[in-house]
Amino acid sequence: MIRIMIADDHAIVRHGLRQILEEDSEMKVVAEHANGIDALNWIRSNNCDIALIDIAMPGMNGIDMIKQLRKDVPGLPVLVISIYAEDQYAVRLIKAGAAGYLTKECAPAKIVDAVRCVAGGKKYLSPAVIELLANEIGDAHQDSPHETLSDREYQIFLLLASAHPVMKIAEMLNLSVKTISTYRSRIMEKMHLSNNAELMHYAFDKRLIE
Fold this sequence. Notes:
This protein is of the alpha/beta class.
């Protein structure tokens, strides 16, 4: 039996994932959490075979959660399922320690296959992610400006590029407006940009947003 912990802040997504996974008699969802910190605390004191997590969650985002799990429970495989396309986050999450990356647009059968693969100790990499990783290796010495950003800076960069105001981003990430403004200034400096319009144009040009 593959025991699965799901962390996603949308109840309907958690319900849908449970239905998909438990149609397979060899899989059981043993816990659901809407908050990254709650999920992490549960894992620290309970057992599961795989953590299936979202990126954007209150309390602790998926990237930070993966990094903490690598320290606390290094043998636990983590599979990420997200609304974001592979070219936005997949490479960063694989580098952080994720065993696989799926988008929420994928077919239910792929989710089941990915869970089985990752629970078996393997990596689940779609053709798109494999291509991104190959390009990353090929361009190792030619980093684009956005690739110099830290994970938190990159997360805020994408939110700014998607036209979210600073106050909204602060609310989404549970940070102060001042902290988000500081990150914004740092991002602009690192990427040699002057304003949000340039930032949005850059992200669109690099196909990091649609």
